[in-house]
Write the structure tokens for this entry.
Amino acid sequence: MSRRGLGTSEAALRVPYAAILPARHVAAIAFTFPLLAHLADTARLVVTREKEAAAVVVAIVMLLVRYGCARRAFSARLSPFALLWLIAGVLVSAGLELGYWLHSLRGAIPEQAFEATARANFLAGPAIQAAYGLVFMVIEMRFVAESSDESADQAVVAAALWLGLPWLSMADVGTSLILSRTSLAVQSAGARHLITTVPVALALLALSRLILRRRWVAIVSSERDPRWRLIECDGGVPPGLPSLAHTQPATPSMILVTVYPGEVPHRKAERIEPRATLCARREP
């Protein structure tokens, strides 16, 4: 067999419906996603000269700070460190926006009204974002800890719901609790679609992958696809293999293998190659 033909065969036998990103990356991106919509909206306002160019710089720094802290939070091994990183990202990014907004507002209204506005927006901005962020962390940490293709797609669906709920609850004014009080509403149609339509589309794609993956695993389990097989793992699970999903604790761990027909003529010997695992969840 030629090298080219072998490469084509290997590519055809890649594990179907593998997750595009691990759950921890999904969570970090989703947690930062509202600030991407905020950046798009701010850029539009700068182009129309409703805001100064410095607003875009602030929005970019907010985005980078939130994403960097979210990556560290969802990669942390211990929950207290994850919590600290998440809160730090929220408070710093929201504080940057609040500081810029108050700087722009200073001198435009009386000092007493300015101080009252600063206090009210601090409580209704970073504090609300931090509380709402903690809800997100509790939801996503289960999927991050499981670390499988299925949990990655479930993380996408959960993140889409988390992003969309504030908009559904305040559809009349378009206010998002994920954004700080100082930015109130995402005003442009493009930014609105970015924070609503895109997560919904990704969630539907993730749901379809969940359904198709489970259907395909059922086909392999019933030995209806001769190219693949699930074999019971007698000893320890081989390290380094990706996980398709986690099954119930009482279910034995399985290994997904690629089945190659005998390479010597007139022999029925098969060659198998481990590709992924289907492991039982650990008992709580």
In short: The chain has two domains: 23-213, 226-280. Confidence is low (pLDDT under 50) at residues 1-9, 173-184.
